[in-house]
């Protein structure tokens, strides 16, 4: 537990217009702007958290959902510690596209063990009254795809946003710990950096 | 000045500012008037001599000819001159630098000083000579440290290599700027990456000024931290006071309105061209009061805080167009901005034709300085064959001659006021023809700079912005994530391989945006490049001097350089290799005549369209 990462990269993926940028802004600046423009490519914000007494910088990457920005966003998937798959509960198509987003992420992030990678699913815009995706449907999908945690959020009224990110951090740290214990046997570490509790921020 | 990169001596041999008010009586030593002299190690006696002589000659000539002196030649040096009240500036270059460029450079230097320090007179009242000497040295070194000789001749904004950047990223940068403008205290801004422009909302001349501050702080952080650390350091946001000319301010405030072309500008659009040309009267100029969208509270605050400037209006602004005297009481066409002249093509011609050429008579005859004519020798040795498009002949059309005296004719020439050229580079909405009004005070603003590693967001803001934490937060929130992202994107772009230069050299100057595209490396030593640059500078001179000249080929026995220009651009092209078929007289087989079509063909892939 002492060798924890001090920078966690969390990436938000999902169709255009589901509210990825708004979720990020709500979490980091606690603001909501109903008139955001399409995100072009990627953007990110840092937020410093304290987890189990350690300072962790959460780097939240917001991506462009539109297909035409694909080539701009995909190079930035690498190195993610957690992926937040986002859809909008008032848009069934965005829910159906979750599988595609997961596939795209696994492919471009070059995830070695996709079954162990921490995904978190967010159903945004729960403040909207006309839902197209029920909670059960979403939970079912999460269960079938690898038992991902599911949160129903609203960036507009701040419902569940912080909770979802906290869960993402915990998943990411847990996955990191697991990876530390599982030293692959078919590789040889030529140089292992001496890590100690005191050198956590250098 | 240890930091001063030793500039190419061709670019600048001397630069000085002399304050005549310090030397009134017979006994006053000249050196008391010397505010700054470059090179700083010049012996005091020589400084005295140059300052005293040039200032004397300058004053004498301007009084005799009752127009401003722009260029003096002394031995093998060409001095651009500016005079304002008791101040006298001179920038000395080698003879081969085009006169236009030297004059522009000097203007640019002074503009830079005023942008960061306010009025020259007041600066010298408030600060010590030494402090301000450091300022001059700073701007001089910045101006002279351009990447290549071409940038020096064609003063241009350095932009990102656009062929290498996804246009969507440029859109992203533009949107960041627009988002910032939602705060009413933000006038305009630009986004810079590694000292190059990604996107700007400001006219090029203003962008160049802003970039001086940026590139300096960038250099400083590079020096202090060795390498810039990936996470931004403690204070990524800074601010500095700057001073805008009224016309710059007016442009910035009016630009969005004009762009939207809402009902405000509709009547102007419908107005016949004739009316537009009449706008040399004050009443036709849109007054700054009519420009909307400035919170009244801030405006009044601003007015109040400027009172020291407005009170000393006499010396507060340095007018870029030095011929106010003549423009006021003679039908000299100078108030007509070239924008109008160009945009109305033939009409403008007529407007010019009837004007008596006051400058012409003044220029040639007055007080010939002892000058060896070696400067023009080069020009004469090269044949200037004018392209088919231009009907100009050497002997004809005296109407055009009023604009200038031919290069190399006399020791002293009164050049066309520089204001024209400067204005030409700004969109017409700027309507800067009143730059020359003496009583226009500089307006104090703030330059807000937010740095994310190599990416910089620079915003011109109302001075009260910096004390307004709500506005600062708003701007920060609306831009931070996008800046982070844009920086990541731009950093990920691998620098384009320099690529083989190809069998040709070219330089393409966009005079609206002041950008230069070229495959000239700027590395020293290339003999062929050197010739190309010299030919380019000569053609550039000719284009400036001869308004109707559109195409020209300049040639020696071995090679030829083709130049073409329009209202918006200048393009120069030289084909390497291939035997020059040149019999000495114009000949159908002459390979020089195929240059225009080659240029059109070759430059298409560089995004230069000459069709």
From TrEMBL, chain A:
InterPro entries: P-loop_NTPase, Rab9, Small_GTP-bd, Small_GTPase. Its main location: membrane. Keywords: Cell membrane, Cytoplasmic vesicle, GTP-binding, Hydrolase, Lipoprotein, Membrane, Nucleotide-binding, Phosphoprotein, Prenylation, Protein transport, Transport. Its cofactor is Mg(2+). It is an enzyme of class 3 (hydrolase). The keyword Nucleotide-binding applies. This is small monomeric GTPase. Belongs to the small GTPase superfamily. Rab family. The keyword Membrane applies. GO terms for biological process: protein transport; Rab protein signal transduction; retrograde transport, endosome to Golgi. Its EC number is 3.6.5.2. One of its GO terms (molecular function) is GTP binding. It is a lipid-anchor. It is found in: Cell membrane; Cytoplasmic vesicle, Phagosome membrane. GO terms for cellular component: cytosol; late endosome; lysosome; phagocytic vesicle membrane; plasma membrane. It comes from Poecilia latipinna (sailfin molly). Gene3D superfamilies: P-loop containing nucleotide triphosphate hydrolases (3.40.50.300). CDD domains: Rab9. It catalyses: GTP + H2O = GDP + phosphate + H(+).
From TrEMBL, chain B:
It holds the Pfam family Intu_longin_3. GO terms for cellular component: BLOC-3 complex; cytoplasmic vesicle; lysosomal membrane. It comes from the Eukaryota. Residues 13-118 form the CCZ1/INTU/HSP4 first Longin domain. GO terms for biological process: melanosome assembly; protein targeting; vesicle-mediated transport. Signal peptide: none annotated. Residues 371-382 have a biased composition (Basic and acidic residues). GO terms for molecular function: guanyl-nucleotide exchange factor activity; small GTPase binding. Residues 219-232, 279-331 have a biased composition (Polar residues). Residues 503-600 form the CCZ1/INTU/HPS4 third Longin domain. Residues 219-239, 257-382 are annotated as: Disordered. InterPro entries: CCZ1/INTU/HSP4_longin_1, CCZ1/INTU/HSP4_longin_3, HPS4. This is HPS4 biogenesis of lysosomal organelles complex 3 subunit 2.
């Amino acid at each position: 537990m002492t060798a924890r990462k001090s920078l966690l990269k969390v990436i938000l993926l999902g169709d255009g217009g589901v509210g990825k940028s708004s979720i990020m802004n709500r979490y980091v600046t606690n603001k909501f702007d109903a008139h955001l423009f399409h995100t072009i490519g990627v953007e990110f914000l840092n937020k410093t958290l304290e987890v189990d007494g350690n300072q962790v910088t959460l780097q939240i990457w917001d991506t462009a959902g539109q297909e035409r920005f694909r080539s701009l966003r995909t190079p930035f998937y690498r190195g993610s510690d957690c992926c937040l798959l986002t859809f909008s509960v008032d848009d069934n198509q965005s829910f159906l596209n979750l599988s595609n987003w997961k596939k795209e992420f696994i492919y471009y992030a070059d995830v070695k063990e996709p079954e162990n990678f921490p995904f978190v699913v967010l159903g945004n815009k729960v403040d909207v009254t006309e839902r197209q995706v029920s909670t059960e449907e979403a939970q079912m999908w999460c269960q079938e795809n690898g038992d991902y945690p599911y949160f129903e959020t609203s960036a507009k009224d701040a419902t569940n946003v912080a909770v979802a990110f906290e869960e993402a951090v915990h998943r990411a740290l847990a996955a990191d710990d697991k990876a530390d214990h599982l030293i692959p046997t078919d590789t040889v570490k030529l140089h292992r950096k001496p890590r100690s509790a005191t050198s956590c921020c250098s | 000045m240890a930091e001063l990169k030793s500039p190419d001596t061709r670019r600048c041999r001397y630069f000085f500012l002399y304050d005549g008010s310090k030397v009134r009586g017979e006994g006053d030593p000249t050196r008391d008037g010397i505010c700054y002299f470059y090179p700083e190690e010049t012996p005091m006696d020589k400084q005295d001599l140059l300052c005293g002589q040039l200032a004397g000659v300058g004053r004498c000539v301007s009084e005799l000819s009752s127009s401003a002196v722009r260029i003096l030649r002394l031995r093998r040096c060409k001095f651009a001159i500016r005079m304002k009240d008791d101040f006298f500036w001179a920038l000395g270059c080698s003879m081969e630098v085009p006169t236009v460029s030297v004059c522009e450079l000097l203007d640019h230097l002074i503009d830079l000083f005023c942008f960061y320090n306010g009025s020259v007179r007041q600066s010298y009242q408030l600060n010590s000579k030494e402090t301000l000497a450091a300022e001059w040295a700073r701007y001089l070194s910045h101006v002279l440290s351009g990447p290549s000789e071409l940038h020096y001749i064609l003063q241009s904004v350095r932009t990102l290599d656009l062929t290498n950047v996804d246009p969507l990223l440029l859109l992203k940068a533009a949107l960041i700027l627009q988002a910032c403008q939602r705060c009413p205290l933000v006038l305009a801004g630009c986004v810079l990456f590694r000292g190059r422009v990604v996107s700007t909302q400001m006219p090029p001349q203003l962008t160049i000024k802003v970039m001086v501050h940026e590139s300096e702080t960038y250099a400083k952080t590079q020096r202090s931290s060795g390498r810039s650390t990936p996470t931004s350091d403690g204070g990524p946001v800074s601010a500095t006071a700057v001073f805008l000319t009224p016309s710059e301010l007016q442009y910035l405030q009016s630009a969005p309105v004009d762009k939207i072309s809402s009902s405000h500008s509709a009547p102007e659009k419908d107005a016949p061209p004739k009316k537009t040309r009449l706008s040399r009267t004050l009443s036709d100029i849109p007054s700054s009061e009519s420009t909307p969208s400035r919170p009244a509270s801030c405006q009044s605050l601003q007015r109040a805080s400027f009172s020291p400037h407005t009170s000393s209006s006499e010396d507060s602004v340095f007018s870029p167009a030095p011929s106010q005297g003549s423009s006021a009481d003679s039908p000299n066409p100078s108030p007509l901005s070239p924008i109008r002249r160009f945009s109305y093509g033939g009409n403008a011609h007529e407007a010019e034709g009837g004007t008596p050429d006051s400058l012409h008579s003044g220029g040639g005859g007055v007080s010939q300085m002892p000058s060896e004519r070696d400067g023009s020798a080069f020009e004469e040795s090269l044949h200037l064959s004018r392209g088919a498009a231009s009907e100009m002949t050497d002997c004809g059309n005296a109407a055009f001659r009023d604009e200038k005296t031919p290069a190399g004719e006399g020791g002293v020439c009164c050049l066309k006021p520089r204001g024209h050229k400067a204005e030409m580079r700004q969109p017409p909405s700027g309507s800067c023809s009143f730059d020359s009004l003496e009583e226009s005070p500089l307006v104090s603003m703030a330059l807000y700079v937010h740095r994310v590693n190599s990416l910089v967001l620079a915003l011109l803001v109302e001075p009260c912005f910096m004390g307004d934490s709500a506005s600062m937060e708003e701007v920060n929130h609306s831009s931070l994530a996008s800046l982070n992202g844009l920086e990541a994107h731009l950093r990920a772009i691998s620098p384009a391989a320099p690529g083989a230069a190809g069998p040709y050299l070219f330089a393409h100057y966009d005079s609206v945006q002041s950008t230069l595209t070229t495959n000239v490396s700027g590395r020293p030593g290339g003999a062929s490049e050197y010739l190309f640059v010299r030919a380019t500078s000569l053609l550039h001179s000719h284009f400036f001097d001869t308004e109707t000249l559109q195409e020209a080929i300049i040639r020696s026995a071995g090679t030829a350089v083709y130049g073409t220009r329009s209202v918006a651009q200048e393009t120069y092209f030289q084909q390497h290799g291939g035997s020059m078929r040149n019999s000495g007289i114009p000949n159908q087989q002459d390979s020089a005549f195929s240059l225009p079509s080659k240029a059109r063909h070759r430059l298409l892939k560089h995004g230069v369209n000459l069709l």
